[in-house]
Amino acid sequence: MKSINWKRVALYALPLGLLAYASFGVWENLGSLRNRVDSSYALTTRNDEGFRLEMELGTFQSDLIQYVMDEGTISFDDVMLSFDLVWSRTQVLNDGSIYTAPRGQFEDGDLLLDLQKELHALDALLIDLKPGEIKKMNTIIRSVSSYRDRMVSVVNKMIQQRVDESNELRLALQHVVEGLDRMHTEFGLGVFLFVLLLTIETVKARRAEAKLKHREKRVRYLAEHDTLTGLGNRAYFNKSLGRMIDEAKQDEESVQLLLMDLDGFKDVNDSFGHPVGDELLKIVATRLNQCVRDGDELARLGGDEFGIIIGSPASAAQMMSKRIVETLAKPFSIDNKEIRISTSIGVASYPENAKTPETLMRDSDMALYDAKASGRNSYRFYKQSMKDALDKRKGLEVLLREALDKNQLEVHYQPQICLKTGQVLGVEALARWTHPERGFIPPSDFIPVAEHAGLIPQLGEWVFRQSCIDVVEWHNAGHHIRMSVNLSPLQLATANLADEILAILQETSARSEFITLELTETSMMKNTRQTKDTLTRLNKAGIRFAVDDFGTGYSNLGYLLHYPVSYLKIDRSFIMNIEASNEEQVMTRGIINLAHGLGLSVVAEGIETLEQSEILQEMQCQEGQGYFYGKPMSKLKILLYLEKMKSNVTLLSTGSRDVMKSA
Ligand code: C2E
Ligand code: MG
Ligand code: MG
Known about the structure:
The protein is an alpha/beta fold.
């Protein structure tokens, strides 16, 4: 039920009360005035009748005197006429008929009755009155005079009464006029207040209406726009895509959908802060706006994702993609800083690739993924093979989840050898997955799937725990070797990585000084506070770090100075042809010199031959890892290997190929 707003009721009651009060006051005054006018009218009438009778008595008296004293000027009939007038008026007054007040109201007892009786008596005297009969006349005059005196006193009294009534009436009228005046003011005030309240209410309602309209407009704008760049948002983009596909369907034309993602935008945010990131996005939006034409739709779909829909053939999309990649590769100058990013674009076409907005989005997304996976800073058009790869990835993802749940993964260990002495210094833990039906699935297949599906923290934790348990076991068996575990860039990005690792060390009693974590250059490049804090904390706890696949990543080596790195692992691609290729030798030597110059140890990856091992030894590379020394092995096999190697160390240091092979 609607609740009553008592404050508002009270507000409106005030002017309405004033109106009611004013009306009531005047109504009451008008009522009393009417009564007074009535009584005044009666008084006037009574007064008039009495006055007339007194005058007629006077007339009769003077007619009588004239008739008796002044013979001939007035006739007897005239005297009788004025007598009759007195007679009849007295009669009428006594009867109390119309226009006259009741007799008693003369307020002099039986004045009228007495007069009437007296007139009866006089009538007899008058009948035979003759001029000159002064005595008779005096009798009549005396009699009439006494009544006339009484009449005069009554009339005077009535006149006084009339004056009083008149005064009272004037006062009453004055009262009414005042009442009317007051009513005028009160009524006016009431009406004014009421109208004022209504006006205020109306103004308020209008304002609320205007505000609502403004808000609706803003909400509609926000619903379809991105406030940072002013471009359309995802909702707007989806709507536009539906519309453009419908139009293309009717006109039998094609639509190109470009989805783009800025490469390394997160790093910009992490390194320069969000305000700079926002500024960069704004400039990106401006540059993109310059690449599109009228009729194309450009929108920001989220974070650093943008989309463009163009109603043209694929060739136009190719030209536009090329232009965008070039335009966004140009440096951005923000806050006196020069920032470089790049962009990856995925393109799909209607109706060639997909026929609905959803499938077109999906296909462009796949093409974008492909552009990202194949080195970024490029564009890709959708191909069926991308979908096949995605399906494969999705299928693997399902199987991998299952494998993790069912503990179907294993950790294998590949030895890391001191090139000089042949001593096993450590092992690298490598995840292994043999699916019951599909057989062996290499890490190069399932690690990216785990990263993409968000399973890498779980997988990484499992591998690390397993490796710690195993290394403790070997230490207890007298093999004091190091354990190297790979760490995905995505693991490094998790906030509580250091806590988790230290907790596992504690839980398994593994000694931190025997643990090395292998990181790729890519993860090191993410120069964030968090990365630095994590690495510093773990390093302080005794853990060492190795840069894996060194030489394949970024050319910027500044990170080597910022992070607590202990080893460089030269990528297999340099070692593969080291015997034959002078360039590779130069590169490898360069890396070794760089590492030594920075006080780091070097581990050469992928040593497959004795020659490679010898060249590396000659280059002062301390450690090596590769099939030449041993492939990754199961826990059981590596233990046997360690046992065997312990007794072969002396032989190994001489560099006997046969001994290595037998190992
Ligand atoms: P990686 O860390 O560089 O590991 C060395 C890779 O080179 C291993 O491949 C190893 O089997 C292979 N290898 C070693 N010696 C030779 C050789 O002489 N010849 C040839 N052809 N290959 C050699 P694998 O086990 O297939 O692993 C591939 C990559 O997968 C690893 O490269 C690592 O980046 C990743 N990976 C493996 N296990 C894990 C894991 O538990 N966590 C994470 N994050 N990544 C892992
Ligand atoms: Mg590694
Ligand atoms: Mg490697």
